[in-house]
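Note to self: keep these together.
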Amino acid sequence: MFLSVIVIARDGDWTPSNGIIYATFLGCVLCHGVLASIMSKIMGKLQTVFVVMNFLLIAATIIALPIGARNRRNEGHYVFTQTENLTTWPRGWAFMLSWLSPIWVTATINPELESVTGSNFGQPMAQIYYDAIGKNGTMGLMSLLFIVQFLMGISILVAASRQTWAFSRDGALPFSSFFRPISQRFGYIPFRAIWGCVLLAAILGLLSLIAPAAAQALFSLAVAGNNLAWATPILARVVWGQRKFKPGPFYTGDRFSVPVAWTAIIFLAFGIILSMFPVEGPNPTPQSMNYTVVINVFVWGGALTFYFLNARAWFTGPKITIATDDLTEEQQVAIREEGLDVKSVTREELHIKNDEEDTRKR
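Structure:
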């Protein structure tokens, strides 16, 4: 998005090379790592700011596009009944693939869709803005979009680092003993996990230097990975854990809870399959192939192989790292019913133990 602003400013007369794209990406990731490391004390409040800015961007888009395109808005027939298939897939499957789009702007989009998808700006969204509100308005909204995406990157890194630390705590990742320590110097954060995620992102970003198809695989990989992460606990609950399930504050009841869960599982599984398909058609070339399926099979297959060959001999579930004096009696009973080994540790003892482990690791 940042590079798109530069392209728009130059009226589409400049095209960034793959090297420039990767350098920009790497600069953003390094900035994310620095900010996530030094701003831990206010990160919770910043998350609220990030959410508000996302809503501001959505509101600005919803308001600006119809106003800017008021003299050429598409009719209701075009918006709700007309379909355009720019792929070689059958029309029905092309419609399914259209659900991968993050936002619907059909009311203001140029009906000549080739001019949008093949925009000189490198981003169809930038072309949609440009057609509706002109150069200056486009630069303003695209700048806001870049800022919002940058802030979202910080949120994603913070979340990913905490998940990485949790998996390392349980010994479920390679080099778990290295990523497990918590840094006191930077405010009790998983400092090593943060920069481990930064390094992994920098390595994955190298795919953008290979070909557009490799870069596109990264976006599809995020969809498939998230869907799998969301579907797995839902599936585990309805298949193996229904008797152990304890409803939370929002519960649809015994009658609707399981059907809603299966609906979510089916939809998420469909999304995983959908994200694996080549976008352009059923006979992809090496350049247009969607390599998400290759990357996912390697990652998921490797994880399953590691579990069945090694981890299942010692992995018994997540380790409890909370002080038992913070638990209610009901929570302690639930933990014992799960067969988890929780030693009686007070809050002060837990802090002392963490301090000793952190000092030893350093």
